[in-house]
Design a protein that fits this description.
It is built from 17 helices and 20 strands. It is an alpha/beta fold. It has three domains: about 90 residues, NAD(P)-binding Rossmann-like Domain (Rossmann fold); about 210 residues, UDP-N-acetylmuramoyl-L-alanine:D-glutamate ligase (3-Layer(aba) Sandwich); about 130 residues, Protein-Tyrosine Phosphatase, Chain A. The strands form three sheets. The protein has a nine-stranded mixed β-sheet. Strand 18, helix 15 and strand 19 form a beta-alpha-beta unit. The longest helix has 16 residues. The chain is globular, with a radius of gyration of 22 Å. One of its GO terms (molecular function) is UDP-N-acetylmuramoylalanine-D-glutamate ligase activity. Belongs to the MurCDEF family.
């Protein structure tokens, strides 16, 4: 019998992990990357005798596939993907490919913002008691963990691009943290397309599965009214009383599932800000569903360290607090960051604009921001938007210079906040690189 051919487009973390799982399951595997594959991934492919190419896509070796796993960074619009679709060859994501090879309980988390924090926090709550992996858009590849670790539970952070490539994927528990316009360049600038993409996380769920979501998010609640799902719904809210799900009563989170109620004070939460109360509600609801004790949940919420590059307090120098929020790659993420500032703020912003509308930030900028440093190749839109709102607005293309300017402008008691509201690819490798450069520059002051 001829082996099934698995072709993988993109030789990064998800691509190489899928290649390892594919080989283990008896596929004839080929990895193709239009760019250069990193040395550490090349070594893994060579060591495992998996055929690969980089800096090109050889059509004859790709169009004979039975199934293709596409890295989430590759848009559907590229020529090779369009050719595959025309030929009727399934093009799927790593999440779809890997999920069929595990019987583990899957917890899938998506949303425009908060998904990394919610996924990390959920994993932190569950790992005290359960055998659980953390994968998807975060950490080691899901596919690789299935062969190497074989966890009984997985918390998966899933982007809309990964959800676009699912067919049968069905998490036992799904979370949608929120939906705000993001990545619209990949969705024909139609917000509806992007919303539909996020809701694919629940498309295969039945009444025995659960969907946890933000009931204060009008985009989510309106979509559910007109596009009902089969899942058992467990909403969370800061403003409404929720019968089945989680809500905030003064300082207490109250979670009810099938008349089984727990309540916990928010006064000692390790993470600050309203949005983090929501992240805590979502994660705690999962923990409550999976029968983790209240005491364990409470202790875990109080000792959780947070996520690197997400409102990360770096250093205090001359009574000025430097905060790294490089992970804020869209306006809504920056909204949360500015909302949580409690001192005059020097805001470092800019990068690749994905069709941003900065209007929702105006009240915070007027109230809290004393200076803006634009850090991008093209800062035209930022300059024209904010020039009349702050006394000082400057632009630079170097992180080290941005930090020196901030240092000069800052007074004791101020915050210097890197919260770019944009993607990083114009000046940096990725948001992690941008965040690390910020931290290095601060430490070198």
């Amino acid at each position: 019998m001829k082996k099934q051919r698995l072709v993988i487009l993109g030789g990064g973390e998800s691509g190489v992990g899928t290649a390892l799982l594919g080989k283990d399951k008896g596929y004839d595997v080929f990895v193709s990357d239009k760019g250069t594959i990193k040395e550490k991934y090349k070594e893994v492919l060579i060591h495992n005798e998996i055929e690969w190419e980089d800096n090109q896509h050889t059509e004859s070796k790709i169009l004979n596939a039975n199934v293709v796993m596409k890295s989430p960074g590759i848009p559907d619009a590229v020529a090779i993907v369009q050719q595959l679709i025309k030929k009727g060859i399934p093009v799927i994501s790593e999440i779809e490919f890997a999920a069929q090879y595990t019987k583990a309980t899957l917890i899938g988390i998506t949303g425009s913002n908060g998904k990394t924090t919610t996924a990390s926090l959920t994993h932190h709550l569950l790992k005290q008691v359960l055998n659980v992996g953390l994968a998807g858009n975060i950490g080691d590849s899901f596919a690789k963990q299935i062969i190497e670790e074989g966890f009984e539970n997985y918390v998966l952070e899933i982007s809309s691009f990964q959800l676009d490539g699912i067919i049968n994927f069905k998490p036992k528990i799904a979370i949608i943290t929120n939906i705000t316009p993001d990545h619209l360049d990949r969705y024909d600038y139609q917000f509806e397309n992007y919303i539909a993409s996020k809701f694919r996380i629940a498309m295969n769920q039945t009444k025995d599965d659960f969907l946890i979501y933000d009931a204060d998010d009008d985009v989510i609640t309106n979509w559910l009214k007109s596009h009902p799902v089969q899942s058992t719904l467990l909403p969370f809210s800061l403003t409404k009383v929720i019968e089945n799900g989680a809500y905030l009563d003064k300082e207490n989170i109250i979670i009810t599932i099938d008349n089984n109620q727990i309540n916990m004070s928010t006064s000692n939460l390790a993470l600050e800000g309203k949005h983090n109360i929501k992240n805590a509600m979502a994660a705690s609801t999962v923990a409550h569903l999976l029968k983790i004790r209240k005491q364990t949940i409470r202790e875990s919420l109080e000792n959780f360290q947070g996520v690197e590059h997400r409102l990360e307090h770096v250093l205090k120098i001359n009574k000025v607090q430097y905060i790294n929020d490089s992970k804020a790659t869209n306006v809504n993420a920056t909204y949360y960051a500015l909302e949580s500032m409690d001192a005059p703020t020097i805001w470092i912003v800019g990068g690749v604009d994905k069709g941003n509308d900065y209007k929702e930030l105006f009240p915070f900028v007027n109230e809290k921001v004393k200076a803006i440093i634009c850090l991008g190749v093209d800062n035209e839109k930022l300059l024209s938007t904010f020039v009349n709102m702050v006394d000082v607005i400057v632009e630079t293309q170097f992180m080290s210079e941005a930090i020196k300017i901030a240092y000069k402008i800052a007074d004791a008691g101020d915050n210097v906040l890197l919260s770019p509201a944009c993607a990083s690819f114009d000046l940096f490798e990725n948001y992690e690189d941008r965040g690390r450069q910020f931290k290095d520059a601060v430490r070198n002051l």
